[in-house]
Amino acid sequence: MNAIVQNMIGGRRSVPGGTERYRAINPARLDDIVADYTFSSASDVEAAVEAARDAAQSWRETSAIARGEILTKAGILLRSRAKDLGALMTREMGKPLAEAVGEADYAGKVLQFYGAEAQRPAGETLHSGRPNVHYYTVREPIGIVGAITPWNFPFSIACWKLGPALVSGNTVVWKPAPHHPGCSQAVLDLLMEAGLPEGVVNLVHGGAETGGAIVGDTRIAGVSFTGSTPVGQSIYRQVSARLARAQCEMGGKNALYVHGQADLDKAVMLTVEGAFRSAGQKCTATSRVLVDKAIEAAFVDKLLSRVAELKAGDPLDPATFLGPVVDDRQFGKVRGHIGAAIAAGHPLLAGGAQAPAENGYFVAPTVFGNVAPDAAIAREEIFGPVVALIPVAGLEAAVDTVNGTAYGLSATIVTRDLEAAHRFARSVDTGVVGVNLPTAGVELHAPFGGWKGSGLGVPEQGLKILDFYTKWRSVAMQFA
């Protein structure tokens, strides 16, 4: 059954008014049309911004405690319905069911976390050098926020942005990726069921034109974006040029380094989890595995044995490890990278480009061996289940290789050597470092942000992101 796709502007549902059409297809069953709908027009975005502006004063004056209670209730509702919402996500973008249900539950926790933040002091009382002066600071919302979210985490990334924006007193115009309209509508429905007033969050479905209208609107005080590096850099330049705020989480070419003192079984497990979960469609996915030459042969044997056991297929099947990539464009992109690597002469150790199986966009888990650090397959973001094995001559060479791309999101070392772990953690140019943990995987209370071409602005998640959604006011009062 095709979903009915509607915007939510000022608390009222409406059919997007643009002319460009989009067909959302279940990537695991290409005959299953999820939705066939038009994108939003510039007039829709205009109406959404007006609705956000109309709601701004009332929402700002709502007590932080009351705002937090709405987020907490929405989080509880989301978690209580995680099973059904996970199934919806699996149909719309192909994530294996267990992962999808886990993401829905995690997103609910994110809303609960920011709901609880409403009870934390939002300023300070300061001493003054002047007599009889009471001096204090307070956080204020920045105003209207534009949120542009990607398709790979329909619930959690939306909640990473909506939670802190809302608890801080901002109103929001939100454009999600077009692949999962039902998931996006479900998030807003839950917020409104929890008591969110009309117009505080306004949902506009669309593509690049819709996003561009949000980015270019001078009434929007800040734009938070998650997506590709070229788009993020363009958004950051445009928003900054009009003296508004921008926060962009972008791509990665994440490396896992298997140190000479590694537990090889652990290293294999972390490689497989990081590279092939969600079909490699994570900005933090393991895309490069750096292996000390002395242990390379043993590690490769163990890795290939494990990869051969992985099942790619129906994401509703509990035995499936990785489902499909999200759409035909991504399918073509991933297969293109694989084909180019084969043509360049890199040894294909497992997988390879795979024709649609089971009527879906399935790509087998793919491993290339003996890849040079400067090869295209070792430098370009793929966003699919493809990993390049790069032999290195020790820790210093590994660090140089990790740092040798334009990206700087996540890196991991697998080792029993504590000194090597500390040297790696302080030497790699990445915003996220793991020791004996996957490159993928975050905790909601910790700041998450990339360096170099992987991130611009304040890190997402945790408490640091509140600095993006708020501005400081200092107040001095003198009493006679």
3D architecture notes:
The protein is 38% helix and 22% strand. Strand 5 and strand 6 (133-141) form a beta hairpin. The protein is α/β, with parallel strands linked by helices and 480 residues long. It has helices at 42-61, 64-80, 82-93, 97-117, 156-167, 181-193, 208-216, 229-241, 264-276, 296-307, 328-343, 395-402, 418-427, 466-469; strands at 7-9, 12-14, 21-25, 33-38, 125-126, 133-141, 144-148, 171-175, 201-203, 220-226, 245-249, 254-258, 286-292, 348-352, 364-368, 386-392, 407-408, 410-414, 432-435, 451-452, 455-456, 470-478. It has 14 helices and 22 strands. Residues 19-475 form the Aldehyde dehydrogenase domain. Belongs to the aldehyde dehydrogenase family. GO terms for molecular function: oxidoreductase activity, acting on the aldehyde or oxo group of donors, NAD or NADP as acceptor. Keywords: Oxidoreductase.
